[in-house]
Amino acid sequence: MSERLSLAIAGLGAIGLAVARRVDAGAVPGLTLVAAAVRDAARAATALSSLRAPPPLVDLAALADNADVVLECIPSRHFLAVAEPAIARGRIFMPLSVGALLDHMALIARARETGARIIVPTGALLGLDAVRAAAEGDIATVTLTTRKPPASLADAPLVLQRGIDLKGLRQPLLLFAGSAREAIPGFPANLNVAVALSLAGIGPDRTRVEVWADPAVRRNTHTVRVVSDAADFTMTIENVPSAENPRTGRITSQSALCALRRLTAPLVVGS
Question: What is the pTM of this model?
Fold first, then answer.
């Protein structure tokens, strides 16, 4: 594509700031950072001061005013404030809080009306290309097993609501077993990968999820198992924590960059 695209980022935490730095450095040819929205403007201004061309800070609703692409990297409670304007203006909307999309699936129909596109980066998972390919045929089962260090799950709503004490845990503890749709309310910051997997495959009600607090693991670990008429496969990923936020995998920001790169790249590999 000879056309340049402009990017706005909602949230400049571990993921958003990493993407902003790379785009500012020219790592994604054809893409220019034009705006960002944050909760703490003073902190963001300090972080952005190192960029060659720091973008202006705007309100969430204004992100879509002048950007072709809006990348959402904020807590899911702010999802609609970013998603609705972007889709209303016919932008490319990339949500990382994809779990919130399950409660607002009407946005897909709205995007069809406005010409917007909703593109979900793979994030901290793997193999969504293979899952999508299998879904062109018949998939019998999809299972995601997530194992995380107990400390990374201590603030999850399900853990807090049930009063589960994860301190001093010595054996793996199964916190949840059920569908992806049932899982996301209890782990809105931990299981966006489950929703992405379900949307690539057989849907949030048929995709099965297990969540384990496991003192033996040091990295967030996801294992995907798929049984289908085209292929049976099992994939495991162990994510290296981000230096800025140990609860976030380093690969998540890199996945967002890959998704952005596909928009302008002359060669795209993978379905």
Answer: 0.94
